[in-house]
Amino acid sequence: MRKRIKTIQSNLFFTYSLIIIIVFAVFVTFFYFWVSKLIKDKAFETIANLLDSTSDKLDIEIQKMDQISMSVLYSSAVKDRFMEYISEPDKTAYTLYDENNRKYAYINNTKELIDVLFAIIGPNRPVQQIYLYGFNGKVFGTGTDNRQQNLSVSEKPWYEEVIDNNGKKVISLPMKDEELSKFATQRGSPYFISLFRVYFDNYNVPQGIVEVKQYYDEIFKSIDRNINNRSDDLRIFVYNNNGDLIYPLKENASEKDFHYFRLKNPDVNQAFSITAINPFNNERELIGYRYSEYTGWTTVVAISESKLLSPVFAFTRIVLLVTLVTLFLALAFSFFAAKKVTVPIARLHKAIKSFNLELPVVAYPIELSSDLYELEDLNQAFHKMSIKLKESHNELMISKQQEMQARMLALQSQMNPHFLYNTLSIISVMAEESMFEQIAEMCGNVSDMLRYISSDKSPLVKISTEIEYTQKYLSCMKFRYGSKLSYSIEIDDEMKEIRIPKLIIQPLAENAIKYGTYREAPWNVRIYGHKTDNYWQITVEDNGIGFDGDKLKAINEKIEEVNKNGLIPSLELEGMGLLNIYMRLKLAYKNKMIFQLGNSIDGGAVITIGGST
Fold it and tell me: Among candidates 435, 428, 523, 519, which has minimal Cα distance to 474?
């Protein structure tokens, strides 16, 4: 039976249509489930991020209070003056003159204690109030309320819990303090959160209690802001370890306010999420939990699952509509595409077969008489390819130049961690020696140097610029070693405008200091340079221990390896500087470079570099 021959157009149409339907069905199905999962994951991630953000911000607010309490506890100035404040002098042993002196000393001690506590609170006032309670009934207030009172601290409702914690922090429930609110400059909620710690003397004997207070609204303002900025039915709750409701503030909390805490597994303290039916509204909800080890508070976020996933339902309707419309348009397009593509195919095939690299390139591409962009673009591509082959020699030369510049930048970038490694090590030593002012000034110089070495505008810079940043580095080292280190820089003015590879002198000075300090001080680094008719030359000399034979041999072997195969050997932070400099000089100046290593008569190392001008 004779096989039925189909037209190209019909064959292409049915083939394209089948491919489009299969591919589109697979793609839409995958896309739908993928995007739906992304939307769900994004919604869950948003809840998780909200939990983390809320819990972290609450931790930060409590940390501010805790830092103030710790500053009070560990302040010698506070401890001495508070002990003086709560002490009970033997008045019977005083004369009238002694009594007047005692009153003056008491007033002066009180003033100094107020000044120290205000200094601890600081101008930003991270807390509103500090109370120091003595077990003898004396109370010293600083902040909004600056009164000195007499009351029994043992009668406070939080007293037993604070004493039982033996110096550990205790965070109170929201407490109304109408008395303290009277002294506030801004009227707001009279509720406060307090943080307590037992106060010990120098012999670790409890002497009183420190209370740090902050407005309730100030601590939970981040939660209020998050809720107000959302349009969905989001609810946030905060509970302590006992299941007491911390947020929202309710004087008469109902059963539904404690529902979410009871759902929590008491043995699980890490962050987790569950879905559950809310018995009070019969809605399925997503509930996220985040426990803070620092505060002992559990933050809960609850939101209706239907509202959380509403974007998924809207996306489903859109995908169905777009799928039907797109499929119809794709089938129509495949029909017309099959019809249009058959005409110029043969002409295009002929044009491709006639292409010959050995023939001269014609001024214009062969005319295909096709309105199909792909075919015309393909024809243009072949024509441009023949032109580009003629230009390949020039492009090859350019690529060689670019390769050299890339290798220069790669070698230069290897010096950056080398510099950071050594500089950070020095700053660490200076920090251990408490050289804080020198560290601050040194960090300024290091910042300038980092901007310089990380700039990639050009691999070549003026000698004057390289010397300037070498000077900054030596200044940093002067901070570290003081009078033990001296240096001098003598560069001829006529060579300062010569452009050389960046970061090529400073590593030599760094190397001189590193190995020069192996011997006893004083240490001296000398940098000098001059220019001949065709070359510039710079020498770095130190009075250290110089190069030993094995060191010079190892460096020369690596130099021979570079000269032999032209490859850059692997470098480590330790000892990478000299070989790196040699390779960059070689890339920049080829055989017209100078690189000499040796020792001076006095035994120090002498390194000379240079190149053609």
Answer: 523
Which residue pairs from 563-566 have beta carbons closer than 8 angstroms and sit at least 24 positions apart in sequence? none
- C-beta atoms surrounding 77 within 10 Å: 14
Amino acid letter for position 148: Q
6: exposed, middle or buried (C-beta count within 10 Å: 0-12, 13-18, 19+)?
A: exposed
DSSP string, 202-253: TTS-EEEEEEEEEEHHHHTHHHHHHHHT--S--EEEEE-TT--EEES--SS-
Cβ-proximal residues to 96 (8 Å cutoff; 6+ apart), any chain: none
Neighbour count for residue 222 (Cβ, 10 Å): 17
- Position 419 scores a pLDDT of 60
Q: What pLDDT shows up at residue 610? A: 94
pLDDT averaged per 10 residues in sequence order, the chain, 613 residues: 58 75 79 75 82 91 92 87 75 54 81 88 88 91 88 90 91 86 70 92 87 91 80 84 89 84 78 83 86 91 79 75 78 71 67 60 64 70 68 48 47 51 72 74 73 69 90 85 91 91 88 86 92 91 88 84 67 60 85 90 90 88
Whether the ω angle into residue 365 lies within 30 degrees of 0, i.e. cis, is: no
Question: In sequence order, what are the residues at sequence separation of 6 or more whose Cβ sits closer than 8 angstroms to the Cβ of residue 470?
Answer: 489, 505, 506, 509, 527
Q: What is the pLDDT of residue 114?
A: 86
Residue ranges of domains in the chain, CATH in brackets? 8-44+311-390 (no CATH), 75-219 (3.30.450.20), 230-308 (3.30.450.20), 396-612 (3.30.565.10)
Rounded CA-CA distance 478/484 in Å is: 8
| Per-residue pLDDT, 213 | 93
Q: Extract the tokens encoding 564.
A: 């032999």
The DSSP symbol for 360 reads P
Supply the pTM of this predicted model: 0.48
CB-based burial of residue 55 (10 Å sphere; 0-12 exposed, 13-18 middle, 19+ buried)?
buried
Which residue reads 């290593």 in tokens? 597
pLDDT confidence of residue 311: 73
Joined tokens for residue 98: 């002694």
Do the beta carbons of residue 58 and residue 299 sit within 8 Å?
A: yes
Gap between the Cα atoms of 571 and 557, Å rounded:
14
Burial 428-458 (b: 16+ CB within 10 A, else e): eebeeeebeebbeebeebbeebeebbeeeee
d(CA 6, CA 282): 64
d(CA 89, CA 102): 9
Q: What is the pLDDT of residue 59?
A: 93
C-alpha triplet 592, 595, 599: angle, nearest 5° = 150
Q: How distant, in Å, are the alpha carbons of 39, 127, 415 from that of 556? A: 61, 66, 20
